[in-house]
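Retro notes (design track)

What went well: tokenization of the new backbones is finally stable.
What didn't: we kept losing track of which sequence belonged to which structure.
Fix going forward: every design gets posted as structure first, then sequence, in one message. First example under the new rule, 461 residues:
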């Protein structure tokens, strides 16, 4: 039912795009405009390389843009992509299917902008740079003034129509993501949250006890609270589990305060006062965590019924957040793509009930190895995905190998006292700096297929 709901939302996105076509694009590639584009195509194409350079030169002056774009990405990929987009936009289109394909491309660009969460102001600023560059280029030619004005009018209409379609696609995708995030939070199991929060509270109190011992015995300074399992949970999971943003902000603020006080504590002479302040904040954190448990009375429908892993439709907001954190903190993020080997053969030989049992067992084995900050998704069919925040590729490969070994050694009990064993193939990839999380997912997927091709029951990275 929920999958159908999401499909309906995506259908509405397509419908909105169709509305935009009739409003903004229907009359753009008409015969008269196509004639203007064909007449001046060579001149427009000559302006493309300098327009691309101007675009990125101005855009990269803004430090905030560096969060989304690196110089390497611009030089190695994005300049060519923008050049291709300009040449496509400024080429005539005489067939309806050509216009339809072009419009679909603008919708996709808007979705990508939403996926990497780039501010619309950056997109609008970039379009302004492009328009200004082409206007100036056209005005500097020896073309008749009337032709110049006609060409500038066509360029303006095309660029603004594309921007409008991108914006509408962006806003719609963002709205869907926000609804998905809220649905994810609202459907978390109260029991699951209670168990997880109890573990977190235990880790918080354990960290505090170690801190007190370090002070009393003048021992070696311990880890920062942000490096503890509690701190990692606050950074990576809290906002995805708690809908009350005020609670999230308060817990985050208290944690940062404790970190600051504990750093001061290890070198200060007035330790009693600082310990009292930390103790007060620890008690307040425990109280807030207890409130979260008391409020977690939701129905456990968020997890896939077989694997008990997170459904794929919840992946986008979670991965967007993790990528933003990886970029901001400069800490690693790894992704595993996992596929159950010869799963079709299990279904064919033993029946679909056996296939369901295999999915259930493999899902349980993966969950048993996860840290509190990790996310595991049922990606589709027998393919699963794991996101490992703050874990570099070497540690991620070790984790993946543990999963491989765990599954391979597990005897799965079927009906009628039958027993089978299965294996999994795993592809691992490290976050590569791209704000689009699908780049990392696709890299892991490529390594998964490499693992399948080279013998299965192995990890490739």
């Amino acid at each position: 039912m929920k999958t159908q709901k999401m499909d309906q939302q995506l259908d509405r996105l397509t419908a909105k795009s169709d509305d935009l076509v009739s409003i903004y694009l229907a009359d753009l590639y008409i015969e008269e405009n196509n004639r203007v584009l064909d007449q001046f195509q060579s001149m427009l194409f000559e302006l493309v390389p300098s327009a691309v350079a101007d675009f990125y030169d101005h855009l990269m002056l803004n430090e905030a843009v560096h969060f989304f774009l690196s110089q390497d990405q611009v030089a190695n990929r994005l300049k060519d992509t923008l050049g291709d987009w300009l040449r496509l936009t400024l080429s005539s289109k005489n067939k309806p299917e050509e216009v339809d394909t072009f419009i679909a491309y603008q919708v996709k660009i808007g979705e990508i902008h939403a996926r990497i969460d780039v501010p619309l102001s950056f997109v609008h600023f970039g379009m302004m740079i492009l328009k200004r560059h082409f206007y100036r280029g056209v005005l500097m030619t020896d073309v008749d003034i009337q032709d110049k004005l006609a060409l500038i009018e066509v360029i303006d209409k095309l660029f603004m129509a594309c921007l409008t379609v991108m914006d509408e696609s962006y806003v719609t995708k963002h709205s869907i993501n926000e609804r998905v995030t809220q649905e994810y939070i609202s459907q978390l199991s109260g029991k699951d949250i209670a168990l997880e929060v109890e573990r977190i509270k235990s880790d918080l109190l354990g960290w505090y006890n170690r801190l007190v011992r370090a002070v009393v015995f003048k021992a070696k300074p311990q880890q920062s609270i942000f490096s503890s399992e509690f701190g990692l949970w606050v950074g990576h999971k809290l906002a995805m589990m708690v809908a009350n943003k005020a609670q999230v902000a308060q817990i985050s603020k208290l944690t940062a305060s404790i970190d600051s006080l504990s750093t001061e504590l290890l070198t200060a002479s007035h330790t009693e006062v600082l310990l009292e302040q930390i103790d007060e904040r620890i008690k307040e954190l425990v109280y807030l965590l207890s409130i979260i448990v008391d409020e977690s009375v939701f129905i456990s429908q968020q997890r896939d019924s077989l694997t008990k892993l997170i459904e794929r439709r919840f992946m986008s907001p979670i991965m967007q957040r993790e990528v933003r954190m990886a970029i901001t903190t400069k800490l690693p993020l790894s992704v595993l793509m996992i596929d159950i080997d010869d799963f079709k053969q299990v279904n064919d030989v033993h029946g679909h009930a056996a296939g369901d049992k295999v999915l259930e067992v493999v899902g349980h084995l993966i969950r048993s190895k996860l840290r509190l900050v990790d996310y595991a998704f049922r990606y589709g069919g027998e393919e699963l995905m794991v996101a490992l925040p703050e874990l570099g590729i070497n540690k991620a490969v070790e984790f993946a190998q543990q999963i491989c070994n765990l599954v391979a050694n597990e005897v799965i009990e079927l009906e009628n006292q039958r027993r089978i064993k299965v294996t999994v193939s795993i592809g691992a990839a490290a976050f590569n700096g791209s704000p689009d999380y699908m780049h990392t997912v696709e890299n892991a997927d490529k390594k998964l297929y490499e693992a399948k091709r080279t013998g299965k029951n192995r990890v490739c990275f």
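Added context from the reviewer: The longest strand covers residues 333-340.
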